[in-house]
Inverse folding.
């Protein structure tokens, strides 16, 4: 199923971009920390199954991940995350579709690190919101490393935190994306 979705996304980008220079991976990494300030409880998880496609000609970006692939330190946290908060059976995927807004400042033919601004739509828990985040692209030959750090308000995505755990779970989740994409 994952390969089919990734293949369809890849074909859509290649077809619409006229065989542009495309970079992709299926093993990107997203971590999040939703711990409440001052709480000794760590609400952190990592997902290493992030599919990512970058079209270097247009700056189009797509990130897609299976929500159930987030791994927590404790199994009970993972169960609560999937059943009570993210409702993973109902909303199995999260995705971002957007563009690099300052694409002219990135030279994909020259090794180096470039600051970028990315704007697009983040869909999570069945809610889509436009976001803009800063990041970096590090070009090294036929590989591009994408890194971004940003926060999202859980309430913006209709993720309710019961009062009984409000002192442990923050109102925002700090998200870090790391993705090594190779030219295809």
């Amino acid at each position: 199923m994952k390969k089919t979705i990734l293949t369809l996304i890849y074909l859509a980008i290649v077809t619409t971009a006229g065989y542009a220079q495309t970079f992709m991976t299926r093993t990107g990494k997203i971590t999040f920390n939703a711990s409440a300030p001052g709480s000794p409880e760590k609400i952190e998880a990592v997902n290493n199954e992030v599919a990512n496609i970058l079209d270097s000609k247009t700056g189009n970006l797509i990130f897609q991940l299976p929500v159930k692939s987030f791994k927590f330190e404790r199994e009970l946290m993972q169960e609560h995350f999937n059943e009570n908060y993210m409702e993973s059976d109902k909303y199995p995927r999260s995705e971002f579709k957007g563009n690099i807004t300052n694409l002219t400042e990135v030279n994909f033919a020259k090794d180096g690190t470039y600051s970028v601004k990315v704007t697009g739509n983040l869909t999570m828990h069945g809610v889509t919101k436009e976001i803009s985040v800063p990041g970096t692209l590090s070009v090294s030959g036929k590989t591009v490393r994408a890194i971004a750090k940003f926060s999202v308000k859980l309430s913006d995505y209709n993720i309710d935190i019961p009062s009984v755990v409000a002192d442990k779970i923050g109102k925002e989740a700090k998200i870090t994306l790391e993705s090594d994409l190779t030219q295809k």
